[in-house]
Automatic annotation (TrEMBL):
Alphabetical keyword list: Membrane, Transmembrane, Transmembrane helix
Protein name as annotated: Uncharacterized protein
Low complexity bias (residue ranges): 56-74, 329-341
Bias (Pro residues): 1-38, 44-55
Length: 341
């Protein structure tokens, strides 16, 4: 790189004492100037040292003139302070500009929220602003008890025990086959409505009562008898020990009697604290044979209907027990039982 021809030599001057320089202070690495030469940082505000005025040999300096330094040495400490000052001013300017921009954005957002849309005033927007939501009401879920548990003991199974709650339908439809209810009755003398050895089995296991109903369809009649016990264990024992059969209940007002001598179809089952039995035969006295399908189907239909009635009782009491605040569970269950199939 070329810097032009060197300046002409100055005339000889008497040597002047040099000005003492302040102690050199180390600068941060990023501010340390390159030693000498072009490109060294210059402070624009700092005055440029004046060139010495030539004087004749032996002549005294001009009056009032201070002796000129022998050589112009940069004041590195002052240059460093000036550079740091400019850097601080630049930082403050940038930070101040950021604050101004952030303030303008925040003011714009606040104005948009307060304005609430086209032409809206802050008061109108505030009136449409969603308020704090009310807390949702909380409820403690109460799971209903197991329905079968409720019909497994007399302590829990407290709904009324009547033919109305067990056999409420005058014309039940069982698997698309319609039956006519012919008669119902209830007795606490369990053995009196049995044949063979069934009466003793019921009595030995603590039978409380027997509820009976008779249904007819197409010349076939079925009587079902529901024996009531205090516990499920007693009802299960009766099912296993059962022998003989329930006595057929003739229809009201001199209706047909059946199964008084000829062979009939018998079933025995238990659910909860109830054991239930069916006897099915022909109303004209025809004996039921081993391959007879009509009496067999009628006995199964009525037995299935009785099972559903027992489970309706269980489910109604379970539902009522899950919400005891609305009244007596047994009363509600009774109303529900009589209205369900």
């Amino acid at each position: 790189m070329s810097f032009g021809p060197p300046p002409p030599p100055l005339p000889d001057q008497p040597s002047q004492p040099q000005q003492p320089h302040p102690a050199h202070q180390p600068l941060p690495p990023w501010q340390q100037p390159a030693p000498g030469g072009p490109g060294a940082p210059q402070d624009p505000a700092a005055p440029t040292p004046a060139a010495p005025t030539p004087t004749a040999p032996g002549a005294a300096p001009a009056p009032g003139a201070a002796p000129a330094p022998a050589a112009a040495t940069p004041d590195w400490e002052r240059l460093a302070d000036s550079t740091a000052s400019r850097a601080r001013r630049r930082t403050w300017l940038l930070a101040g500009g950021g604050v101004v921009v952030a303030g303008a954005v925040a003011a714009g957002v606040a104005f948009a929220v307060a304005g609430g849309g086209k032409g809206g005033t802050p008061s109108q927007a505030a009136s449409h602003a969603p308020g704090p939501q009310n807390p949702e009401p909380s409820f403690s879920p109460v799971a209903p008890p197991n329905p079968r548990d409720l019909i497994s003991s007399s302590e829990k199974d407290t709904a009324p025990l009547t033919t109305k709650t067990f056999f409420p339908h005058s014309r039940p439809v069982l698997d698309k086959r319609a039956y006519q209810r012919a008669a119902t009755d209830t007795t606490t003398d369990c053995a009196s409505v049995t044949h063979g050895g069934l009466g003793k089995v019921l009595t030995d296991n603590g039978c409380r009562k027997v509820l009976r109903a008779t249904y007819t369809r197409d010349g076939v009649a079925v009587t079902v008898g529901v024996a009531v016990f205090d516990t499920k264990a007693a009802a299960d024992r009766v099912k296993e020990q059962s022998t003989g059969n329930i006595t057929a209940l003739p229809g009201d007002n001199g209706g047909p009697s059946f199964c008084q001598g000829p062979a009939c179809r018998l079933t025995a089952n238990a659910e909860g604290r109830y054991a239930y039995f069916t006897v099915a035969g022909y109303t004209d006295g025809t004996a039921v044979t081993a391959d007879d399908k009509k009496a067999l189907q009628a006995g199964r239909d009525v037995a299935g209907y009785t099972f559903r009635r027992i489970m309706a009782r269980a489910n109604a009491q379970a539902t009522a027990s899950a919400d005891p605040s609305k009244g007596n569970a047994a009363t509600k269950a009774s109303a529900t039982i009589t209205s369900t199939g």
